[in-house]
Amino acid sequence: MTFTIQSIQFQSYRLAFREPFQTALGILLHREGFIIEIRDRHNRIGLGESSPLAGFGMESLDKTAETLKEFSKSLINIEIQNLHYIENLLAKYDRTPAAKHGLELGLLSLLSQTQNISISQLLANSFSGKVRDRVLVNGVIGAIAPDLAATRAKAYIDQGYRCLKIKVGTQDFESDLRRVGAVRSQVGNDIQIRIDANQGWSVQEAIANLKKLEFLQIEYVEQPVIASDLFGMAEVRRSQSILVAADESVNNLAQLQRVINAQAADIIILKPMALGGLITAHRAAAIAFKAGLDVVVTTTIDGAIARQAAFDLAAALPIKRACGLATGHLLAEK
Length: 334
Hints:
Enolase-like, domain 1; TIM Barrel; 7-stranded parallel β-sheet; 4-stranded antiparallel β-sheet; 12 helices
């Protein structure tokens, strides 16, 4: 079954963080982007979200708006046939991944309504055909004081979380170490702890720091060194025992292949917003699995529409690790 685009509209939004969210890349105070509404001739509505985030290879907010404006004029009355048609239609927007994500999501929403199946099932039909109704998620603890980190960790565990991600990679490794140690002491050894350095270390710093963290039973470290230094990441991976996950190193399929070729990671972090949508992210997962790597789906701390889309992607994939999808509580308005 097909549908025909009748209208495309978008409006801006700005969501404040509940409190400043500190990472190795800086302090985030808010998230902003656009909600896209695509309507077909049967008056069905598909919603999408475009929210670029600095540091993840995405375009500026102004460029997102420009792309959405162009799209809203050029695709009226086009008939959408299937998943592959959407992929081909939006291929020219690869350089503006956030805009592409929002447009693709709106179209996928309409296609799923037309076919009377979920977006997860749409994606799964091109892979295993199976959709999970349950996806494990991790809690997120920013680069905060150790005692506060331990308090946050207890609150997460009380809510039922079994996996926590802690931000490290700041200019003060001793504080990073105390933060992770405080959380481990608080939650015990049965809770998974993963850390995210956000490119904050040099290769030698990463190796030395991770060796000091090994005793804390770390599940994996995300992006320990600068994203472009794949040989350095591979050296970090070979030189200590903690698994390495590529995050900012994978913003498109070509980058993913380079990570695989360099043997730079054990795990691939897939952010649909940075990759330009669910279809590309789903394709990236298939490539990673074929190469023998694990996959974790995370948001870029988006609004509710994009967070749901990230869940839909994770549910369509055979992922065993917890995913970074529980980020809505970080925003004052969800």
